[in-house]
Amino acid sequence: MGNSEANTPLTAEEQEELIPNLATRAELNEWERENILRARLWALGKRRLRLRDPVTEPYVRELHRGMFHATWKWAGRYRRTEKNLGVAPQLILEGLAALLGDAAYWIEHGTYSVDEIAIRFHHRLVVIHPFPNGNGRHARLIADVLAARMGRPVFSWGGGRELADAGSVREAYLRALRSADGGNCQPLLEFSRS
């Protein structure tokens, strides 16, 4: 199964840990989409929002596992290989600890608006890129969970279209991420509510 430029390349070893028997990238995308929808309902349930703090390391793994456990044997486990994005594998835990500490501080002290806290969290999680694959979808869902937990509606992320597919919406998302890389979160904030 080949990779498109919209996906993080997987090693042969990572591809061997695919659970369902799928032949094409389209089949994989549809399979993942269905599982992510179930995980979304689970993560955004009112009881779960009250009981689970998304700004914890176990939750970061638990959400990824919930999204991809029916697809990848490595769901919820941090990557051990270099990728075209993200910090070196040995820096993932350190990067997550810094992000989680910063986010807890932002929340406690109201450093930013709720939307900006969730979007900054999303951006930094994408930069860390902790998992072999699914990082963007995971970071968007955890931002939605964080916003909902703090009383805001979930984000629309460019109108709810699938961002894994190449196209103008994905390009706008990637431009907004690059802007955030340069320190300007405003385009990503605007995109998240467009």
Give a short synopsis of this structure.
The chain has 9 helices and no strands. It is an all-alpha fold and 194 residues long. It starts with 11 loop residues before the first helix and ends with a helix.
Descriptors:
mainly alpha, 0% strand, 194 residues, Fic-like fold, 9 helices, disordered N terminus
Describe the structure.
The structure is a single chain. The chain is mainly alpha-helical and 194 residues long. It has one domain: Fic-like fold, CATH 1.10.3290.10. It is 57% helix and 0% strand. It has helices spanning 12-15, 25-43, 46-51, 57-68, 92-109, 114-128, 135-149, 168-181, 186-192. Helix 5 runs antiparallel to helix 6, helix 6 runs antiparallel to helix 7 and helix 8 (168-181) packs antiparallel against helix 9.
- The CATH topology annotation reads as Fic-like fold
Q: Please, how many helices? A: 9
- The CATH architecture can be named as Orthogonal Bundle
End-to-end Cα distance, whole Å, is 33 Å
Largest sheet: none
Question: Can you give the helix content as a percent range?
Answer: 55-70%
What is the tally of beta strands?
A: 0
Top CATH class: Mainly Alpha
Please state the overall shape, judged from the principal axes of the Cα atoms: globular
Strand content: under 5%
Name the CATH superfamily assignment.
Answer: Fido-like domain
Q: What Rg is obtained from the alpha carbons, in whole angstroms?
A: 16 Å
Task: Report the average pLDDT across residues.
Answer: 91
Question: What is the SS-derived class?
Answer: mainly alpha
Could you list the spans in which at least 5 consecutive residues all have pLDDT below 50? 1-6
Q: Order of helices and strands, N to C?
A: HHHHHHHHH
